[in-house]
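Troubleshooting: if your tokenizer reports a length mismatch, compare against these two reference records.
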Amino acid sequence: MPDVGSIERSAGKAFGLSVLLPGMGHRYVNQNQWTGWAKTYAAADIGLWLSLFGGEWRRDHLIQSYTTLARGSANAQVDGKDRTFFLNLASFESSDIYRETMLRNRAWDRIDYVDDPAFQWEWQSEDDYIRYRDLRDDAETLRRRRSILIASLVANRLISGAIAARSAGRSRRAQVTASLAPPVEAAPVLSLNIRF
């Protein structure tokens, strides 16, 4: 008699395929058919990648915008500066105000940060200062969002893989083979063989 159950599928292979591309493990378990779940995990993965690349493109554009604004409207030397410098530009309207604030707060180790003329700035207008802060805040939001998107990509792969592996295990448990054999000379009775 033919197999009553479905074709045996490897849980490890289903998991591995889903880690490479979410949905592929489900496709493998379902005899190369793109089922609803396979399509859902693949579509989620594509959406997450598009959001990640789109966010990075937008963030690069915002960084270019706020560094250009700082160079032109705050007379800041932005080349080779780290994140702290750009944070200070968003927090203080000038390097003099920065120094006064550090003195008032007794942050002695941070007072000499603006001694070098390359680390001095002064915003020409409050509108430019506010615009800079908004651009930088938007770029920082996208930077934080990048971490969430990367974690979501990993989670999508692991969840898809775990469910595909479980489905493969279920298909293995469902396999039953039954056969009837004619009587042999030693035993005059029909034999029924059932294999799981």
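Reference record two:
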Amino acid sequence: MDRIDDAILGALQNDGRMSNKELAAQVGLAPSSCLDRVRRLHDRGVIRGYHAEVDPGAMKIGLQAFVFVRLTQHSRDFVESFRDHIVSLPEVVSVYHVAGQEDFVIHVAVRDANHLRNLTLDAFTTRPEVDRLNTAIVYEHIADSAWPNYAVSAL
């Protein structure tokens, strides 16, 4: 990774639909050199894909929440079984397996409070791995589309 790769990543994280010609001009490369660098970033797994940012309201998502889950055991079987279950749920936006008082933090997107209640009762509390859960409603979600790049030295 060098400064040009970092510039490419920054530009693509801000606009994944940018043409190669636009990207090359922005980072100061010939289009062919830029395309080679982007391909190498893909091949090395640095760029894993491109995603559309979607308005939750347009998808009839009226409520987001974080569900904090503590497991009854910390065995690999319990962790993997619970993780596999929650990632299969369509309401789950992201999953964090964490250290601390809770074992998982799960970001969910639902229609409304009743949907959230039913999801927690039916998909979480019925699981044998779950000891307890807490739920926090999200009032506002602000996400930066760009990750910091610590792989480039002396930035």
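Descriptive notes for reference record two:
- The chain has two domains: 3-43, 56-138.
- The CA atoms of residues 41 and 47 lie 6 Å apart.
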